[in-house]
C-alpha cells in the first residue's frame, strides 16, 4: 500500500538465487557452543540430552519444510539437504538459510526445558549460524554427507579416547592430547581396549554414525525395484508431473512419519533401499502392526 | 583434525562477502505472522505486548552484536544497520543474516512467556526470515530507514482508521476497506476525527514513529560540535585508529546503555545530535542524576 | 615489484568463479550487426562470406583455447562450450568471457580483408559482447545447443521466405511481414515451393543447420564402443588421470584438426559417434588416405 | 520470434549487475605481452609506437562509450572508469567488460598497420582480457587510479635503470637484476645519474606519468567555481535532470575533443580543474584560437 520517494532503495537488494538443478545443503552450526556446553555442564565426550534436543529441533525443521529430503547431525552442527528440484523461496539463499536457522533456533530454545528441566536457560541464549552450498549432482551431495559422516567417526574416536584417558586414566587434558598426537585409528582402538576394556565397536551408534533424519516409507528391496525406479536418476527435476499428482504426493509426504536413525549413509545401501530420498516422490507408508 | 577424501566438497562453497565500505542492513520479517497473531489474539490495529516483545528481542540482538549501530522496527519486521566499516564474519552475508535471525528468534521465543504469561507458545513456533542489503553511502542507508518510517506512518494511519471503522463504526472488513479505497491521509484524519473523535496526532508515538534502538550517550548540541565531529563524514572507515584506542572504544561502547525510543529519523536532527551512530565512535556516557 | 599505500584497492575486486562441474557456455554476439551488415552490403537472407569469416574466427578461438570442446554459430552469434572439468583462469567468468571475446574480435578484424578484399573496414569497427552461462549437466548443455539449433532453423526458414517474397515476389518488407504473420513452418515451405519453386530441403546445410566446430578424430561406431567409453558419463571430472597421461592427451589434442561441419547436434547420433567431445579425451587421429 | 521447448535454458543465466552508485573500473591487460613484444622487437624499456597504439585504441574506446569519464594506461594495461551513475547495459559486468575488451582489441588490431607499417601482424594475434571492479566512492576510485600511477612510477624507474645497466653499462640481465636488488628510488636515481649521466626527471612524461585520456573542456580555475560546482560531490547520481537537459549534455559531450595527456592524477589539482570528469556534466568547449 505504502509508496514513497524513498522506495527506490529496494533496488539495492542483490539477487542470491542458488543455481538450478543443484542439491542445496543448508548447514547450521552452534555459535560458541564450546562455552555454551561448558556453562550447562554437558557430559563429555557426548551429551545424550544435548543431542536429543538437536535431533528434536532438526525433526521440527523437516516437518515445517517438506522440501528437505534428508538431514544429518553431529555435535552442534546439522546439515539439511533440499532437493535439486526445490523451488522454495525461488531458491534464494538468504531466505532459505535464515528460515532453516530461525526454525531450528526456535525449537532448540523452546524445547530446551523439556530436555533440561532442571537447567533453565539464562542469557546469552544459544544461537546458530548457517550457510547454503549448492551441489550440482547426486554424487557431490552424497560426498558432502560422506564427508560429514567420516568426520563424525574420526572426531568421535578421538574424543572417546581422549576423555577415557582423562576420566578413566587420570590424565589431564594436556597429557591426553600428547598421548594421542600422531596416533592412527588402530592405535586409539588399542588404547581404549587394552587400557580401559572399551571396545569402540560397542559404543552407541548415535555417536559412531551421527543422526540421520528422513521420511519413513516401506523399504525397497535392493534390485527389486530397479526397473521402475532408477537408482541414480540423471535428472529427477525433469519428470513432469500433473498438478493433481503433485497435490497427492504432497499429502502422502505430509502423512509420512519423520524418522531418526543412526546408520551408514556413505555406502549405496541406504540410498537404494530408500529411493524416495533422492526422487522426492513419496513411497509406501509402512503398514502398522 | 579430520581429513578425508571427501573434504574436497568444501570447494563448492561460494563466497558471499558484502561489498566493502557499504552500510549493511539486515532486515528480518516474521514468517506467516498474520496467522500467528490471529492465533494468539493480538489486539488490532496494534498489540502493545507483541511490539514490546519485538523490541526486547531487538535490544538483545544489539547487545550481542555491537557492530549494529541502529535498529528500526515496525509491525513484525526489524531492520539492523551494521556500520560501513564492520568486519564481523568478514562481512559474509549468510553468516551475518543467520546470526541476526537466530539471535532474534532465540530471544523472541525465550522472552515470549514474560510478555504473554497467560498464553503458552504452541507449535508451530514463531520464526523469522532475513536478508542483507548493502548501501554504499550514508544517504542511501538513511533513505532506507526513511522508507521504513514513511511506511510505518502510512500503514498505521490506514490501520487505525480501518479498525476504528470496524471496532467503533460497526462496519465489517469489506465495508471498511471500501470506505477507505482511494482516500488520502487528510481524508483518513478527517474520518477519525469527525466520526470517532480520534485525533491521530494524539496516538502513541510507538505506532506513529515505530521503534528506534541505539546506544545512549550524551546528546550533542547541533552546531556546537561541528568542528570536531563531521556531521556527515565522507569516509569513516578511513580514520586509522590504534589498537589501544579501539580497545578503549569497545569498552565504552559495551558500557553504553541501549535505548529504545520512538522519534523521527527522517530529518537531520536525530543524526546530528547523535554523531556516534554514524561514526561508530562511542560518545559521552550520560551523567546519572 | 610495486607496493604502495594505494594497493588496498585490490580488495574491492569481487570473485566471479563459475560453479564447479558445470559446462560453461560463452556466447558472443555482434554489437549492432544489423547496421554493420547493411553498411557493408551483406547478402540477404544470408551472406556466405560473412559467415565464413565468423567461422574462421571461431576456429581460431578453438585453436587458441583447447578447453573449448565444441562451438556453434549462427548469424552474428557464436557459442563456445568449455568442458565441465575446465580449470582455465580458475573458471573466472570475466577472464573467460573477455578472452574469448577478445580473441574472436582480433581474428574477425584481422581476417576481414581476406574475406572482403574489396571492402576495407572503416570506423566504427565490428565488435562483440559476451556472457558466460553455467550448465550443471550434459543434458542442460545439450539442450542449450539444441535451443540455438532450433532457433537457427526457425529463423532461417522465416528469413528465406521473407526475402523470397521481396527478392522474387516483388513485395516490400512490410507486405512480406504481413504475409508471414501467423504462418506455420508448413505454410512457409508451401509459399516457397508453390510460388518460387524453392524446395527448402535443398537449401544449403550451413543455413539450415548452422556451423558446428569441433576436433576431428575417427568416428566411433554407435554401440561398438559402449563398453570402453561411457556414452554419457555421469561425472567426467571424476576420472583421475596421471600428469603424464594428461600431457600426452594435450599433445594429441593439439594435433587434432579442427573441423567445421553443418549437421544435426540435437539428436544423440552426433554425440555418440564423437565421444571425445563430451569426454574431452582425444580420440584416434583419422588415417590419411 | 523463435520459441521452442529448449528455451528454458535461458533461466540458467545468472545476474551480474554491478552495485548501484559505484564507480566501475574496467581494466584490460595484454595476454602474453612479454612474448608478444619480444616477437615484434619492441624497444626497451619502453616502445613509443607500441604505447601510441595502446593510446589510440583507448581513445577509440572512449569515443564509442561516452559513459567512460577517464582512462589511464601504462605498459600493456588500460583502466577505463565508468561514472557511478552509468546505466549502460544495466551495469551488467559481462556486457561492460566484453564490450570494452572487444572494442579495444578491434582497434588495436585494426590500427596496428598504421603504427607498425613494416611489421605485419602474424598469428597468434594480440589479445586482451578484462575485469570490472566497483568502487563505492570517489575516494576509492581515485585511490585506484593513484595505485596505478604509483605503479607506473615505480616500474618505470626500475625498468629505466635496469635497461641502462644493460644497454649502456654492458651488464647482462642477471647482473642488472642483482645490482638493483634492494635498492631504493634514490639509489636508482643515483645509478642513472652518476654512471650514465641520465637525469630521471628529464625522462619523457609519457613514461613517468602514464597516459591519461579524458574529454577536453575549458579548465576551471581552482577556487573560482567552488560555489557552483562541488569539488567532491557526495552523490552526483542524485541530481535529477530533465530529459531535454540530458539530451543537450549528450550532444555537448559528443562534441568534446578527447584528449591524451601525461600528468599527475594523484593530487587534487587535476580533478579540481576538470570538474566535468567527476560530475559527468560537459564543461565549456575550449575556444579555438
From TrEMBL, chains A, B, C, D:
Residues 6-136 form the tRNAHis guanylyltransferase catalytic domain. InterPro entries: Thg1_C_dom, tRNAHis_GuaTrfase_cat, tRNAHis_GuaTrfase_Thg1, tRNAHis_GuaTrfase_Thg1_sf. Keywords: GTP-binding, Magnesium, Metal-binding, Nucleotide-binding, Nucleotidyltransferase, Transferase, tRNA processing. Its EC number is 2.7.7.79. Binds 2 magnesium ions per subunit. Its cofactor is Mg(2+). Adds a GMP to the 5'-end of tRNA(His) after transcription and RNase P cleavage. It comes from Calycina marina. It catalyses: a 5'-end ribonucleotide-tRNA(His) + GTP + ATP + H2O = a 5'-end phospho-guanosine-ribonucleotide-tRNA(His) + AMP + 2 diphosphate + H(+). Coiled coil: none annotated. Signal peptide: none annotated. Belongs to the tRNA(His) guanylyltransferase family. Mg(2+) 1 binds at residues 29-30, 76. This is tRNA(His) guanylyltransferase.
